Model the fold of this input.
Amino acid sequence: MRFGLAIMNDFPPGVVPAQRIDALREQVAAAREAGFSSVWMLQHYLGNMPTLQPVPTLAALTAEAGGMDIGTNMLILPLHHPVEVAELYATLDHLSGGHVIAGFGMGYRENEFRSFGIPMDERTSRYEEAIEVIRALWSGETVRHTGTHFTVHGERISLPPVRPGGPEVWIGAGAHRAGARRAARLGDGWIIPPHVSPDRLKTVIEWRREEAARLGRAERPFSHVVRRELVLDHDGDRARETGLRARGALTRAYGAFDAPDTTASYRHLTSDAAAAQVADESYLFCTPDVAAAKLGELAALGVDYVILRMQWYDLAQEQVLATMRLFRDEVLPRFRA
Done:
């Protein structure tokens, strides 16, 4: 099992992100030294929290990342033209020495799509067609594509990626059958949301495997990725209290917008009580021993990559670094053995 660090790039109202850049650099350097495999950032537009856009911010952190992969969790692909995305990620691939993972999501906030002038009901078709065009451009070959949304007349990308064929594409999709099928058909990996319970994970991973077998892709390398929220403390009650407070503040801010889907995976947006229940089921606000045990359970389900977020809203840098040290010293060695 490999681990990534999800950096907080959406900040509480009133925070000036320019004043947090050094802290981000410190977290990335600490993650590299601790043995993490990757660093990730999210994307939103026009939200209620100051948000650094992920691609330029990740580019600014490539020196601290060293040999770690850098990835987006998620770029909202339907809001972008695939030619732009192909060139942006190829640039990031060069800046990082071939260490980019392209995490693409479909988005879900109506205000974002409305402001870009893109109908919400075109999300799926734009998403799938864009991935087709991006992969074709990353091949370095001449692309001739006439589709529903995009047309490329015999053009070739100006900057072929360092990695032959381009970065891996990890599909951001909900824990439902449509998401499992989309991940099997389009992706090299599937990033499953952090709120999904272990029982549900077992079900949807099996759906993905069944679809891959149906498509004749069962033998292809594929990463089952899940995000988990993490606060570690030798006092488990204190870890839970710290995590619920900080993650709960973020949840309430996100609750001002549409939920990504209507499944039980997003019931944490409905109330503080539901948020606490989801945290107890799926988050890692606990001691290092409990975290190791729960991560082992995920591995047994077929999860081979976990992206850990250790900071939300106003949680202090010192707490983040303390959690990372405990993870480095008392959790990660159990998975390296």
Remarks:
- The two ends are 11 Å apart (CA to CA).
- The chain has twelve helices and twelve strands.
- The chain has a mean pLDDT of 96.
